[in-house]
Backbone:
């Protein structure tokens, strides 16, 4: 597993417009969307008739993972920072990981491609050798059935394909992720980078 630094490189450009929301794709917040999703990039983990669930990839907190899950602290990618995954269930923790194995190791549930969620009750020494990246999130972002579709229709979010899921999910500089993804998407979405939060100010 990668223990020092995150993934530095920017993912390559991909060119599919307006994909449907589904597990493994990104939700990118419109410039006008305020807290708690200001400039958020969310990795969708589930999207079906029961609703949608994802984690915000680019909101690191000031907390050390060792304060909440000390057994996992030395197994994380980059700094041992706890990330805020969203405003729902902030007292719960979720482990987002990547594996290079085609078969799921015990304690790992695949979401899409190499990315999955881990069971944080699994002994770290048993699971960590099978992982290439890992971050821990407090809380998640959730939507009731049809709620996300309504927000997409309102223009609050854009759905963007993941070019390299490991690069996007574990970028060393999460503060650059929103602009990176929009620039990569191109077209109108690239313009979002320069759009004021209040369109009336433009």
Residues:
């Amino acid at each position: 597993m990668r223990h020092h630094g995150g993934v530095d490189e920017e993912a390559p450009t991909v060119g599919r417009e307006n994909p449907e929301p589904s597990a493994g794709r990104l939700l990118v917040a419109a410039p006008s969307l305020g807290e708690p999703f200001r400039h958020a990039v969310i990795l969708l983990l589930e999207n079906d008739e029961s609703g949608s669930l994802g984690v915000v990839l680019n909101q690191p907190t000031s907390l050390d993972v060792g304060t909440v899950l000390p057994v996992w602290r030395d197994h994380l990618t980059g700094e041992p920072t706890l990330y805020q995954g969203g405003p729902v269930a902030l007292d719960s923790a979720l482990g987002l990981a990547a594996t290079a194995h085609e078969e799921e190791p015990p304690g790992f549930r695949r979401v899409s491609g190499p990315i999955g969620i881990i069971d944080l009750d699994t002994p770290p020494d048993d699971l960590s050798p099978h992982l290439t990246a890992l971050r821990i999130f407090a809380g998640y972002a959730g939507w009731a059935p049809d709620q996300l579709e309504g927000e997409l229709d309102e223009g609050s979010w854009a759905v963007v394909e993941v070019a390299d899921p490991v690069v996007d999910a574990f970028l060393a500089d999460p503060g650059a992720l929103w602009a990176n993804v929009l620039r990569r998407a191109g077209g109108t979405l690239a313009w979002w980078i320069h759009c004021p939060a209040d369109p009336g100010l433009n």
Summary: The chain has one domain: 26-190.
